[in-house]
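Human: Cast an eye over this sequence-structure pair and say how the chain folds.
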Amino acid sequence: MEHHRVANTVSGTVGGHVVQAENIGSVHIHPRPEPPPRPHQVRSPYGPFVNREPEFAALSAALGRVETGGLGIVVFTGLGGVGKTELIAKFTEEHRARFPDGDLYADLQAYRHQGGVDLPALLAGFLRALGTEPPAVEAERFTTFRTVTAERRCLFFLDNVEHAAEVRALLPSCGLVVVASRRRLPALRTVGAEVRQLGPLSATAGADLVRAWLGSERGTDGELAALVELCGGLPLALNAVGSQLLDRDNLPLGRVVAELHDREGRVAVLHDEESDLGPTYDLVYERLSPQGRALYHLIGVHPGPFVSAELARAAGVEQAGAALTELRAVHLLDEVVDDGLDDRFRAHDVVRLHAYDRTRELPGRVELLARVVAYFRGRASLADRAMGARLRLQDPSGEGLPGFASYPEALEWLQAERANLRAAVEAAAKQKWHGEVWRLCESLWPLYHGRKHYQDLIATHRLGVTSAQWDNRPDAVVRMRNQLARAHFERKEYALAAEQLEVASELVPLVTDQRVVGVLYETDGLLCLADGRSARAAERFALAREANRGDRHGEIVQSYNLAQALIADDRPEQALAVLDEATARAEEPERDTAMLVKLPLVRARAYRALGRLDLAVAQAEECARLASGQREYAKAAQAYTLLVALAEELEDAELAEHTRERLRQLRG
């Protein structure tokens, strides 16, 4: 019998898997996992850079420790505007290749609230950037962060640090941590940090910097030296003055120096360490156009860190786009990069302080602040309403402002403006604009609950409770206290949640809308579920559903909760019947998208309880698909986590690995 030899040959370019063998049985080819994300969050340097060799040497020494698997910490302290951020940006750009796992940035000022920093929220951002979904329990994020960074070499830039404890809490297992602070932080030497004070530029270095912009023809050496001295050797101040010199070729350098000299001896606008910068920024301000000054006034009045053309127009700034361009040109504003969002800008802290002092006696200051708060309340209300039907005590607002085309777009805007929105709540409370406060809080519920910003929720809703009381709105007081209770519940602070419910229940006789009473039944039901009283929980959710009779969305929400209680009470068949009815109602002509995302996950749990794992898998996959489409990442993560458990029960290794990969991608 003749045997024919078969030869396998491979030629050309091969981009995937290749298997060659004499006898091939079954072959399982697993897709190559996606590499973890490599974030690049530290901004690029802006321009010429001079006179920082000792600081670069300190960073390079710390980097040497990192490359042997250790942790390097370098702290730069100094005046605002002295160039700390530019130094770190320059170093990162030159050495980015030596951080194969990326560079991450956090401005602690954006997370600071009433003196403290929301460290769990900051770590959540770091973990997502590194491809890991942050745990829902905030305390677990710190250990997860140390685990995730144990095998990675990253640079972490912590900006606007005020206390050593903030840095200690955020230290990774390895990598380079660079800190910028306007305060001296000697205590960080106890964790091995190199702490260096960054001083102003010398007269020679400052002159070199200005010459790099203006060229060698403009101004004498004496004028350059005087300019550097009057600007305190601070690159930020030199940038501001230098930009105006570049824009006006006919403006003599000597004239600028003379004008700055004229201001010596007057009362400085800026205080404390930055007091000598007042004259410099006065000069920049006085050369702004009328619309540029109007935008500068907005920066001084606005309680939050970010401004946009849309906010400026709503606040009454004419030619807002041109004003933003003008202030950017003189380095009074930096652009904030937000993918898919309108351009937003942030002023340096020194600029904001100067702008604040310029507007303290501004006629119409309170009216300008009122327009700012009204803008954020209106836009938040529009965003909230774009995210689906739910109980709202306030009338629609935001007339004349642009709306949102979709649920994801609205949620992303709320997230991007989170610091501004919190600041608007606090400013309104300080002005005793009570109606604005609780209405803003009500609109922020989908952001705070959906993205798990419970520290923000608690801080703002405490103000919301007080404002609703002053506004004589018992229904709003109940609503605020219930949302506070939900935040404590999610943080597993069950006693505090129950306390809020008890106080809110005292106002029930004054509330005419039974749906408001229903939210108390709902939260009480969740507390019953948490401590194992599933039958009692089912009773409370049934009462909540009855209180929402006639409100389609409210009935669907409480059916969703009731089904979960029935599953916990070992009644999955009843749960499926409740879910079928709720789904049919949610699919009525005006689709309840928010609930159609959530219902399949509970149905999957019911099928799992019945042992019908194939149907459970299908429902969990449907929930993951819908939640990802709506950018409900926490809900999608819950669905994938359930899918992994189902795959393990089915002993389906391929499904388990595929789902784990999807979960990793989602966390990225």
Observations:
- The CA atoms of residues 333 and 348 lie 7 Å apart.
- The mean pLDDT is 87.
- The chain has 30 helices and ten strands.
